[in-house]
Amino acid sequence: MSDKTGIVITGASGRMGQMLIKTVLESDKAKLVGCVERAGHDWVGQDIGVAMGGAAVGVTVTDDALEAFSKAQAVIDFTAPAATIAFSKLAAQARVTHVIGTTGMTENEIAQLEPAARHAVIVRAGNMSLGVNLLVQLTKKVAAALDEDFDIEVIEAHHHHKVDAPSGTALMLGEAAAEGRGVKLADVRDSGRDGITGARKRGDIGFTAIRGGDIVGEHDVLFAAAGERIVLRHMATDRAIFARGAVKAALWGQGQKPGEYDMIDVLGL
């Protein structure tokens, strides 16, 4: 019997889904035990290796998430908010670790994960990479050190397929900056500027979103004052960094008490 952690990937046909599948298949600590797609999808019923254009790996794509989860110790979920909420209930029922990389979730949607966290481990993060989570910590420290003479702007760039803005990572950075300053992001958030907006309000945290080409993910946190600027930057060039972080989170979740965690917990930062 294998001592590897059994992992299910939801949204198997998506770009992140396929990257996650490849990462798990290559892992020496995890094994792929299930792949989930929506009912009616062409991949349902196919071996995932064949569906991805390669050799069979012995795992069939299913639309029955609960059945797949019941055979696993963890599920990695980079899908959409409504699907993630539904998966959280099934993961809690199966008592498996639920790693959530889904972005674009509202506060209300995030709150709907709380009941599941009473019964299972949930690790949710807007970004699973080590570098980004270090950037979050640095942003908090710099924001705490500088007063409101420094305007804060979070500038993010992603590929043209991305459907949500600002990105989940940008919001993580904004939250970190707000926490550093001892304020709530909801009270100082400034995004979606267009037209005659008037002068920037002192103390606001701004967001700028760029969409184009195949950009994997770039994030700058700009601290701008009269006569000087400080820029903290992270650039992702390979989507695999997010997949590796997600697998790390799934392994870390084994043996943890039910509850909600993030990558700061996983990385021990």
How would you explain this protein's 3D organization?
It is elongated and about 60 Å long. It contains eleven helices and twelve strands. It is an alpha/beta fold. The strands form two sheets. The chain has a seven-stranded parallel sheet with strand order 3-2-1-4-5-6-12, with helices on both faces. It folds into two domains: 5-124 and 239-267, 3-Layer(aba) Sandwich (Rossmann fold), CATH 3.40.50.720; 130-236, Dihydrodipicolinate Reductase, domain 2, CATH 3.30.360.
In DSSP terms (H or I, runs of 4 or more residues), the helix count works out at 11
Low-confidence stretches: none
Number of domains: 2
Question: What is the CATH level 1 assignment of the largest domain?
Answer: Alpha Beta
Q: Taking all residues together, what is the mean pLDDT?
A: 96
Q: Please trace the helix and strand order, writing H or E for each element.
A: EHEHEHEHEHHEHEHHEEEEHEH
Question: What kind of sheet is the major sheet?
Answer: 7 strands, parallel
Strand residue content? 15-25%
CATH architecture of the largest domain: 3-Layer(aba) Sandwich
Fourth-level CATH superfamily of the largest domain: NAD(P)-binding Rossmann-like Domain
